[in-house]
Design a protein that fits this description.
This protein is mainly α. It contains twelve helices and no strands.
C-alpha cells in the first residue's frame, strides 16, 4: 500500500504545539507592552503623551517580537505561521498537508486563547481598562467598512511580501525580518483603522478574554480573503517555489518539505 502524505501526521505534534506556543507568546508580549504603553497609571504613558509615538513604539515592540519568534529554534521548526490566514494561504498553494493545516490553525486558536485567558486571570485590573481592553482589535472611527478594506489590504500586502521575499534565493533568509517590519509599520499607521489584526486567532483570543465580539466577522473574513487574493495573484504571475516556512535556512526538520516529497513520490 502506498503511503499517503498524511501518514506521518502523528509525528508532527511538536509543530502543532510550537504554533500554539508562538501565538501565545505573541499575545503575552502584546498584552505586556500594551499595559506598559497605554495603561493610564503607566509612567511610560505619562512621559509619552503622543498617541502616535506610543503606537510606533508598540509597532516596534511587536515587530521585534514577531522576528524573535520566527527566528527562534522553535519558530524555525514549525515555520512560525502564528496565523490561520497564513496557514490557509500556504495550503492553497499546496505547501501544507490538509491535516497539518487544520492542526496548525487549531493550535493557533488554542494557544492565543489560552495565553489571553491566562493574562486576564493574572492582570485583569490592568488589561480591562478601556485604554488596554485586552489588546482587542476593533474597528476605528471610520467604521466597519473601512476596517474590512484595511484588514484585507494589509493582510494581502503582508502575504505578498512573504511570497516575493521567500521565493528570492538572495533574500529568502530575511523573510522573517520583512514580515516583522510589516507588522511594525501596520501597527504604527494602520491600527487606527481596524486595530491591525491580520489574524483571526489573534483577534479571537482578545475577544474571548474581553468578552467583546464587536465586528468579529471582519477579522475572520478580511485577513483570509486578503491573503488568498495575494496568493492567487502571485501564483498566477510567478509561481511559488519556496516551502511554507518563513525561515527555511536552518537544520530543523521541515514537515512541509516532507509533504512535498511524499506527494511527488505518490505521483510517480
Amino acid at each position: 500500500m502506498r503511503a499517503t502524505p498524511s501518514s506521518s501526521l502523528p509525528a508532527h505534534w511538536p509543530e502543532y504545539l510550537i504554533e500554539a506556543f508562538c501565538l501565545g507568546a505573541f499575545m503575552v508580549s502584546a498584552s505586556g507592552f500594551a499595559m506598559l504603553l497605554e495603561h493610564p497609571d503607566s509612567p511610560v504613558r505619562a512621559v509619552l503623551a503622543d498617541d502616535f509615538v506610543r503606537r510606533a513604539l508598540m509597532g516596534v515592540a511587536m515587530g521585534l517580537t514577531a522576528i524573535a519568534l520566527i527566528y527562534s529554534p522553535w519558530g524555525r521548526q514549525s515555520g512560525a505561521h502564528m496565523n490561520p490566514a497564513v496557514t490557509l494561504a500556504f495550503f492553497r498553494l499546496g505547501k501544507v498537508a490538509p491535516a497539518d493545516a487544520l492542526a496548525y490553525m487549531l493550535g493557533q486558536f488554542i494557544g492565543g486563547a489560552a495565553a489571553m485567558l491566562g493574562m486576564g486571570a493574572v492582570f485583569a485590573k490592568m488589561l480591562s481598562v478601556p485604554q488596554v481592553h485586552y489588546v482587542a482589535t476593533l474597528p476605528g472611527n471610520s467604521g466597519t467598512g473601512v476596517a474590512f478594506l484595511a484588514e484585507a489590504f494589509i493582510s494581502g500586502l503582508l502575504m505578498a511580501v512573504v511570497l516575493v521575499v521567500s521565493n528570492r534565493t538572495a533574500l529568502a533568509r530575511f523573510t522573517g525580518l520583512f514580515a516583522g517590519v510589516c507588522v511594525a509599520l501596520f501597527i504604527t499607521f494602520e491600527a487606527p483603522l481596524s486595530g491591525m489584526s491580520m489574524n483571526p486567532a489573534r483577534t479571537f483570543a482578545s475577544a474571548l478574554a474581553a468578552r467583546d465580539w464587536t465586528a468579529l466577522w471582519i477579522y475572520f473574513t478580511a485577513p483570509p480573503l486578503g491573503m488568498l487574493a495575494a496568493t492567487e495573484l502571485y501564483h498566477r504571475l510567478a509561481g511559488a517555489r519556496a516551502c511554507a516556512k518563513l525561515h527555511h535556512q536552518n537544520t530543523r526538520r521541515c514537515i512541509f518539505c516532507e509533504y512535498q516529497r511524499q506527494r511527488a513520490k505518490n505521483e510517480t
